[in-house]
Amino acid sequence: MANKCEFRELPDLNKARNRTQSFSFDYEGVTYPDSLVKYLNGKTYFIHTYGCQANYRDEEVMAGMFEHMGMSKASGIENADVVVLNTCAVRENAEQKVFGMIGELKKYKTTDNSRVFCVCGCMVQQKHIIEFITEKFKHIDLIFGTHNITSLPSMLDEVIRKRIRLVDVESSPTKIEENLPSKRLSSFKAFINISYGCDKFCTYCIVPYTRGKERSRLMKDILEEAQELKNLGYQEVTLLGQNVNAYGKDLKDGSTFAKLLEEVAKIGIPRVRFLTSHPWDFTEEIVDVIAKYDNVMKYIHLPVQSGSSEILRLMGRRYDAEKYLKLVDMIRSKVPDVALSTDIIVGFPNETYEQFLETVELCKKVQYDSAFTFIYSPRNGTPAAKIKDNVSSKDKSIRFRELVKALEVGISEKSNAMVGNTYKVLVEGVSEKNPEMMSGYTEKNKLVHFKGDPSLVGKIVSVKITESHTYSLIGELVNE
Ligand code: 5AD
Ligand code: SF4
Predict the structure, then answer these.
(1) Residue pair 124/144 in contact by the 8 Å Cβ criterion
(2) Contact criterion met (CB below 8 Å) for 200 and 170
(3) Pocket mutation for ligand 2, best pick of 278, 313, 372, 374 (most atoms within 8 Å of C-beta)
(4) Which residues line ligand 1 (CB under 6 A)?
(5) Fold topology of 422-477
C-alpha cells in the first residue's frame, strides 16, 4: 500500500503572480539532519534534469548536498537509491516527457520502500500538476518546489523516517541563499547564477510564476564565485539569469549588468558568456563592455519571439520589430563581428499568416547565427492561455517548418563562410557519433568536430574548418 501523503504547502499561481514580499540574503548554508546523513551515507543518487540552464545549476546544488552526505552518483536511474526528476514547465511537451519518466519509475520501486523518488522544478510549481501526480503516481515520495530546494535534506529525512509521502512547494521565494554546496557537472565550464526569477510576465510564459520575483545576487558574491572558478582552472563561465540585463535593478546599490560583466571579465577566465538577454534592458554600456574585453564572447542570445509588432504587443514584450532591429544595429555598430541567436514562438493565438511572414522577414534581416524555434504552447494560468485561438495546430506546424527552413538558409551561409578559417575551440568531449572525433564550441558557439584525442578535453585549441553542415562543422587540429 502507498504511504500516506502529507501536503505541507501547495503552490498558488495567484500568490506567485501577486508576490509582494521582500527577500533577504541568507548565508547560513544547508542543514543536514544527522539521522539522514547516517542513513544515506554510502548510498547513491541520480538526478534527471529537463529544461534550461537554471535547472542544471539547481542539479549541481542538489548533487552537492547528496555528496556532502557521503553519497555518490549512480550510473542511471535504475540503480539509484534516491532519484530526483528536476522538471521544466515552459511547454507542454516538456511536461509530457516528465510524465513518461514518472511512469517509467514505477517499475523500479521496491516493495520495502528503500528507494526514494522525488519530483522538483518548475512543473510542480503548478497545483494541478501536483494533484495529478499525487493521485496517479503513488510511487512518488517527495514533491518540492524551486524555492525550497535547500530544505531537501530535512524533507528527505521526514519521508524516510516517518514513511510518508510529502508535498512541500512554496509559491514564492523569500530568500537569496548563498554558501550552497555544489557538485559541478563540468570541470572546465560553469554556470553562475547572477539573478533568479523574472518580472517581465510575457503573456505566454509560465517562468515568472514558477521561478518567482526577479532578484539579484550581490555583486561581491558573484565575483567571489567567478574568482573561485578561475582559481580552479575553469575555461568558461556563463552568467545566468532569465533576464541578465535587468541584473542589479532590485538591489538599488548602483549595481548594473554592465558593471558586473566588466568585473567578471577582469578576473580573466578565458571565456565569459551570459544568458538570457531581454531586448528591453539591453543598454549601450553593456555592449561597450562586450566590445572592450576579448574574453567576453561576441555571441549574444537575444530572443525576439516574433517579427510582428502586433504579436509582440500581445505577448507583452515591451518592444516592437523596429525597436528590436534598431537594437541589433546598435550592437553591430559597436561589435561588428557579433554572432546573434534567438528564440521564436510560432503560432501565438490568432497569429495571421501575414504576421508569421513578418517573423520570417525579420529573421532574414537579422541573419541569425542560430535560433531556437517553438510552437506556442498554452500554459495554464498565463494570460495568453485564455485567448480563444483560431489557428489550427496543422497550420502552426506548417509555419514552424517554413520558418526553420528559412532560418537554415542563413545559418548555412554563415557556416559555409567559416570553411578555410581557423577558430579557437573549447573541447567538450568525444563526439557522440564518432569515437575518433572530439567535439567542442567556438567562441561564437558553433559546434565543431575534429580528429583528436581525449587529453584535449577542457582545453582551448585551434581548429581549421574543412567542411560545413548547417548545425555543425568539421575541422582539423592546428598545431601551434
Ligand atoms: N510556448 C512556446 N514557447 C515558449 N517559450 C516560453 N514560453 C513558451 C510557450 N508558452 C519559449 C520562448 C522562450 C524560450 C525559453 O521558450 O521562446 O524564450
Ligand atoms: Fe518568460 Fe518573458 Fe521572463 Fe523570458 S522574459 S522568462 S519569456 S516572462
Answers:
(1) yes
(2) no
(3) 278
(4) 90-91, 204-205, 303, 305, 343, 345, 374, 376-377, 379
(5) OB fold (Dihydrolipoamide Acetyltransferase, E2P) (2.40.50)
Residue nearest to atom 4 of ligand 2 (CA): 242
Confidence at residue 216, expressed as pLDDT on a 0 to 100 scale: 96
Show the low-confidence residues of the chain (pLDDT under 70): 1, 480
Q: What is the CATH number assigned to the segment(s) 5-175?
A: 3.40.50.12160
Amino acid at the residue 434: N
Domain ranges of the chain: 5-175, 181-416, 422-477
Residue 111 is predicted with a pLDDT of 74
Find, among 268, 313, 261, the residue nearest to 283 by Cα. Answer: 261
Query: Any idea which ligand is nearest the CA of 211?
Result: 2
Burial class (CB in 10 A: 0-12, 13-18, 19+), 122: buried
- For domain 181-416, give the CATH number: 3.80.30.20
Nearest to 82 by CA among 27, 141, 11: 141
DSSP state letter for 147: T
Give the CA-trace dihedral at 316, 318, 324, 326, to 10 degrees. Answer: 160
